[in-house]
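Quick entry between incubations.
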Amino acid sequence: MSKPSIPQGTRDFSPELMAKRKFILNTIENVYQSFGFMQLETPAMENLSTLTGKYGNEGDQLLFKILNSGDYLKDLALETLDSKSLIPKIAEKGLRYDLTVPLARFVAMHRHEISFPFKRYQIQPVWRADRPQKGRYREFWQCDADVLGTDSLLCEADFIKIYQTVFSKLGLHDYEIRINHRKLLEAVCEKADAKQHFRTITIIIDKADKIGIDGVAKELGSIGLDAAQVQTVLSLLNKKELSKQTIEAFSKDLSGTESIGKAIEDLNKLIDLCGNNLKQIVLDGSLARGLDYYTACIFEVVPTSVKMGSISGGGRYDNLTEVFGLKEKVSGIGISFGIDRLYDVMEELQLFVGQTSSFADVLFCPMDEEAISYCLPLADICREKGFKTEIYPSPSKLKKQLDYANSKNIKWAIIVGESEIEKREVSIKNLVDGNQQTSDIVDFVDLIH
Amino acid sequence: MSKPSIPQGTRDFSPELMAKRKFILNTIENVYQSFGFMQLETPAMENLSTLTGKYGNEGDQLLFKILNSGDYLKDLALETLDSKSLIPKIAEKGLRYDLTVPLARFVAMHRHEISFPFKRYQIQPVWRADRPQKGRYREFWQCDADVLGTDSLLCEADFIKIYQTVFSKLGLHDYEIRINHRKLLEAVCEKADAKQHFRTITIIIDKADKIGIDGVAKELGSIGLDAAQVQTVLSLLNKKELSKQTIEAFSKDLSGTESIGKAIEDLNKLIDLCGNNLKQIVLDGSLARGLDYYTACIFEVVPTSVKMGSISGGGRYDNLTEVFGLKEKVSGIGISFGIDRLYDVMEELQLFVGQTSSFADVLFCPMDEEAISYCLPLADICREKGFKTEIYPSPSKLKKQLDYANSKNIKWAIIVGESEIEKREVSIKNLVDGNQQTSDIVDFVDLIH
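Done. Structure below.
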C-alpha cells in the first residue's frame, strides 16, 4: 500500500492551524456583520457554462473540471477527439474559481427576491489549477464582502473603515491602503495620447513594484510610446497622500481629458466622507488591479513591515450581472481578503498571541476506573459554567495524563483517586503555577478561573 | 445567453437560510468544543487512491472525479479505451465523500505528531454523485466528532451527553437515541446458527423500519433460514429500554455464544457511566448501521414527532487507519450529524425562533447628502457598543429606507435631516413599537437596546 498523501497545492489544517485561521476568519466575519453584511454560501461546483469566459483565457485553463457521472464515453467517437474537444463532452461542472462570479450568478437568478442595496459576505474556499509554489495554493480561502445596487461613495468609505477595524483587531498596524481610480488611469493615457494602449499600460504600471520605474519606462517604450508619452505615464508612479491638494494637482495636470472629472469628483467625495480618517491611506497611481470589470475606485492593502504581496484588494464595478445577460444595471463594489497571505503575515510578525492558548480548560484525571464515573457529573458542572472540560478516558499514570493536558494547553487538572472519592473531594492542580489544593465537590468549580 | 443555473443536487444558501444553518452548526460546534474536541479541516480534493475502495463498489461509483490539468490525452490510444479504463488515466483526484476517510488519512500521515487520545471535530461539505431527490443532495454538510486512540466506554457516555446537550440547545425534545452493539448482532446470528449470513442479516434487519417485521421474516426466509432461525433473529426487533434487566435477559437468551460476553460487558459499563442519564435512550437490536468498520457500540438518533430518517449516527471501530496500511492499532469512536435533515426537522417543527431576527440592529437614514457624513462617526459609536449598524447609502425617500430596514428586521432607524444636523441631534425610531424620540448626539446610543 502506498503512503497516503494529499494532492499538490492543498493542505490539511491541524487544530493548531485552525485555531489561528479561525481567529482571522471570525474577526473579519464579525466586522462584516457589524456593518450589516449578510452571509451567502454557494455550491463548490458550478456549471462550466457559468464559469468559462469570465476569467480570461488563462483563467479558463485554471478551472478544475469535474467528470460527468455514468458511462459518458459510450457514444463518443474517441478517435476523433483531443483533450480540448473531449472536455466539453465529459465535464459539465467545474469548481468555483472565485466568489464574485457565483455572487453575480446568484443575483441574476434571485434579483426579484433581493432587497437592494444587497450587502453580502461570503467566506469559502476556491480552487485554481495553478502551479503550486510558496504561498500559492490550489485550494485557498476567500473572504469577500460586496454591496450591490448602489453607487454611493459611502461604500468606499465603509470599506476603508472595515480595513482599519479588521487590522486593528488583528493587531496588524504596519500596512498601507492603496487607492486609485480607474478614470485617473484613463485620463493619464488620454493625456499621453495613448488611449488605445490603455489595457497594456495598466498591466505594465501594475508591475512597478516588481520591475521598478526603469523597467516600466522600458516596457512602455517597447509598445511604441515616445519619451514624452512615457514621462506622462510615469507621473502616476509616485505614491501620494490622499488629500484635496493631491487631487487638485491631478486635476490641473490632466485638465481637458474626458475622464478626469469623474475621478476628481469621486475622490473628493471620498475624502469628505472619511473626514480625519485618512491614516494609512495612499493614492497610488500605479495601482491598476488586473480585472477588467473595475470601473472607478480600486483598493489594495499591502503590509509594510514584511515583504509580501497584497493581503486584500477590491474595487467598484459598473455592472456585475451583465455577463449573465441581465439588462437592469447592478453596480456595486467589493473587497476580498486573502486569508492565506494574511495568515503568513501574522505568523511572520508573531501577531498570534494566545489564539491557540487552550483547546480545553479543565482535564479530570481519574486514578482508577471508579473515578471515571465519579468525575462525569463534575465535568458537566464545569461545562455548565462555560469551561471546556474533558475526562481522561482511562486511569493511566498521572504523568501521562498531565502530558496530555500540556499538549492541549489545559490549565486545570482535577485529580481524583481513592482518597478523594472517599472524602467526596477533588484535588485541583493549576498547571500554570503548579499550585494544588483540595476542595469538596460542591464548591470546587469556584476555584477554577 | 442561457439562463444561469446551478448543478443538480446543489444549493445556494441565502442569508435567511445561512442564519438558521449557522445556528445549528454553531450549537454543535460549541458543544463539541465544550468536551475538548479540536477542529480539523482537510482539502475538498483527495487523491483517488485515498478514496477508492473505502466505500464499497457503490461508493466508488458515486465519487466525483476531477479532470487532470493539461493535455493529458495526447499520449493515450483513445480508441482502445472505454470510460472505465479512461478514468484512471485522466483523473487522479476526487471530491471528499465523507469526513472519516480523510480523518484516517490525516492520522496515518501525522501519527507521530498527534497526542492520543485525539479528539477532533470537522464540519465540512462532502460530495456524492447520487441521484438528487427530496432531502438528498449532491453537496451536503457533515458535522463529525471522533475520539481516536482509546477504547474507553467513557467516549460512548460522552457522545450520549453530547446528543442530549445539542438537542436541548436546539429545542428538539422529541427524539430517540438508539443504541446497539455489533457483538449482540453477532451473538444472535451465532445462536441462530447463521453466522455465515451475518452481513446479509444485518442489512435485512436494518430495513425493519421500512419493510416491517413480516418483510424482515420473508427476506430472512429467502436467504435460506428456517422458521426457528428466523424467530431467533426476529427477537432482536423489539426495542427495549437500556437497562441492566434488558442486558440480563439478552445475556440469558444468548448464553453460550462467543460474542455475547463483550456486548454485555460494554453495555453494562455504559449504563453504569450514564447513571441516571438514560432518558431518550433505547436499545434497538435491529440497528445495524451499514458500515463494515463498526465493531462495538453503534448509535442512531431519530426524531419521533416528525417522519424523517436518522439525524445522526455513529459507532465504535477497531482500527480506522488499517486501510492505510498502519500496523499500530488506532481504535476509536465517532458520530456525525446530518445537518440538512436536522435543518428540515427543525423547520417542520418550527424550532427556529429568532435565528433570523435581525441582520442589523441600527439603520441610519440620511435625508440629504450632507447627512451621510454626519451619520458616519455616529455609526462608529453604535458599532463600538456592539450594535450591527449601517447607513442607508443614499438620501432616498424615508419610506424606501424603512422598507429596507424591515427587509433586514432592523429594530432602530436613526433619522437625520437638515433640522437634526442644525440642532446636533438625531431622531430615533423604534420600528417594533413605532415610538420616536429625539436625542443629542452624545447620549443617543444609550436609548438603543
